[in-house]
Amino acid sequence: MKDMLLIALIAFLGAAAAGILGALALRLFRHRSLVVSVTVVAAVAVTAMLAGTLAVAWAMFLSPHDLSVVTTVVAMAAVVSLVTAVLLGRWMVARSRDLTLAARSFGDGGVFAAPVEPATAELDALTRELAATSAKLDSSRERERALETSRRELVAWISHDLRTPLAGLRAMSEALEDGMAADSPRYLRQIRTEVERMNDMVGDLFELSRIHAGSLTLTPTRISVYDLIGDALAGADPLARELGVRLVGDRIDAVPVAVDSKEMSRVLGNLLVNAIRRTPADGTVAVAARQGEGGVVLSVTDGCGGIPEEDLPRVFDTGWRGSDARTPPAGAGLGLAIVRGIVEAHAGRAAVRNVAGGCCFEVTLPAA
């Protein structure tokens, strides 16, 4: 028993010495290639076995012939182990290099293409994560391009929409100043109309800038959807009468919501005005509210004739006006963008879909 313990101690000391040297080598070469690290690990294992075996062999006073046999066997095992470690390290380095090149390609703005050669489970997991990140970045780039296009269109339309009334105001003011206006009260009424139109446009721009800057402050209060929609219908009724459009609101559930009543009134007002202006005379704009699975759903259905399917994803983008048939004589395409911003600030969502004869805008809000 004592002999076995002595042999174990001698073998442990020899292996421990090899392990300490290997740890120092790993620390020294920790910034080098993976091939070096794998080779060092294999060398430590082989050296530990060799040191322990030789220490025990010397302690047992084996004959020179027996000692050379043991040494030769261990040396051959060491050679095979080191060669295997080098080959494994080179294979892992090659897979890592392929993954690095693939990651660099999508980091430069391209699309991530996963290496075709098989790799380790860890590298495969990293490849899947990089592929998912690449898809997200590609989607973000597409969204950014769409937003940039919307911004350019918005600047062009705002410039045009502001230039037109300003030119009219200048002409009318010059006519009044020169005493050339035959009907001064009519000119003054027209000036006031144009000023109100420009004021609404500037107000929409200010509201949209607050939404995009994240500085929109909400004061939620518990209110019935019935009261909220009732106030919005009352506010839109004069415009509907003027354009000969019927407002219908007979499918409204009296469910409570916790919203900022002022901002949500603006949402419903924008949707109703948008629907009334795009519905032909003698048409109908229907407002409904119901308790759905995802919350309280408010809907405004018009008779505009529908929106082209390719335009549906852009309806709530800043500056979107739709086709010429749906473009109103005034406005800069900010109303629906404001609707989406306010609704999302309430942790809700806005959507649109085509229905028979028109389209249906839906606002989903969390139930109170």
Brief overview:
The chain has helices at residues 2-28, 34-59, 64-107, 121-178, 184-213, 225-243, 261-278, 335-345, and strands spanning 221-224, 246-252, 256-259, 284-292, 295-301, 349-355, 358-365.
List the helices and strands and how they pair.
Blueprint: H1 2-28, H2 34-59, H3 64-107, H4 121-178, H5 184-213, E1 221-224, H6 225-243, E2 246-252, E3 256-259, H7 261-278, E4 284-292, E5 295-301, H8 335-345, E6 349-355, E7 358-365
Parallel strand pairs: 2-4
Antiparallel strand pairs: 1-3, 4-5, 5-7, 6-7
Helix pairs in contact: 1-2, 2-3, 3-4, 4-5, 5-8, 6-7, 7-8
Keywords summarizing the entry:
368 residues; 8 helices; 5-stranded mixed sheet; two-stranded antiparallel ribbon
Write a structural description:
There is one protein chain. Helices cover 63% and strands 12% of the residues. It is elongated. It is built from 8 helices and 7 strands. Strand 4 (284-292) and strand 5 form a beta hairpin. The chain has helices spanning 2-28, 34-59, 64-107, 121-178, 184-213, 225-243, 261-278, 335-345; strands at 221-224, 246-252, 256-259, 284-292, 295-301, 349-355, 358-365. Helix 7 (261-278) runs antiparallel to helix 8. The protein has 368 residues and is of the alpha+beta class. It starts with a helix and ends with a strand. The strands form 2 sheets. It has a 5-stranded mixed sheet with strand order 2-4-5-7-6.
